[in-house]
Amino acid sequence: MNAASTPVAFGPSRTVRLGIRRIGFELRQYFRASDQVFFTFLFPTLMYLIFATIFTGDVGEGADKISMATYYLPGLVAGGIFLSGMQGLSIEIAVEKSDGTLKRLGSTPISPVTYFIGKIGEVFVTAILQIALLLIVAVVLYGVELPSDADAWGRFAWVFVLGLLTCTMLGIALSALPRSGKTASAVVIPVVLLLQFISGVYIAFSSLPEWLQNVASAFPLKWIAQGMRSAILPDSFGAAEPNGGWELGLVAIALAAWLVAGIILSRATFRWIRRD
């Protein structure tokens, strides 16, 4: 390739500016895909509606008694974070790689950094809207009382940001696994669904067999769900956790370790086109 046809890379400032501009483009593409909106954006709220309607009554004792609608809320919030960062992004990138979108971008001066700023921005905006919708439904339809103290919302915020960043990096890495866009959903969704069932999203984590709890503890979703329970549920519910407490320090360490692993894996596996 001669010098005239070689793309000239943009500088760091322009790379970032272009990445920020891509966020709007990525959001338009996201909400135009009706299947993605249903299975990623609306899915946690729909599942919450089902669980909160079917399972009624209260759990806990005395002043810490809460409704089942409140009890299921932190797990579905964690599931929404996982769906946005892991499932949605991995399938989206795999499809773009398969249909030639990434190949065309790779022939331009746009760097992977620009591309992923757009993708990460899309994930954060859609996840914020998704969780906001879920919380509004919980409060308006089921009378859920959200935390009123700043410490609880602080825990909610850092678990949300760290968990979403971790799932986003892992979603980028997972996008290298499907061999085509047609098989992306078949590869990704079973993995995501299985982890949701064993990580305290749909089933109370304390009711799972100990060996299954140990398996779930090796993956980030369990720690995101535990962090969200610490933010939304009364402190007394921490006694039901495997080690009798919320273990927020361990939550942060586990998510940070997975974040580093996700960055390394995404950096090692991402290509504009498949090697084969």
TrEMBL record:
ABC transmembrane type-2 domain sequence ranges: 35-276
Keyword Transmembrane on entry: yes
One Pfam family this sequence matches: ABC2_membrane
InterPro entries noted in UniProt: ABC-2_transporter, ABC2_TM, ABC2_TM_bact-type, ABC_2_transport
Keyword Methyltransferase (UniProt): no
Membrane topology listed for this record: Multi-pass membrane protein
Keywords on record: Antibiotic resistance, Cell membrane, Membrane, Transmembrane, Transmembrane helix, Transport
Superkingdom to which the source organism belongs: Bacteria
Subcellular location(s) of the protein: Cell membrane; Membrane
Transmembrane segments: 37-57, 69-95, 123-144, 156-177, 184-205, 248-270
Similarity field: Belongs to the ABC-2 integral membrane protein family.
Protein name: Transport permease protein
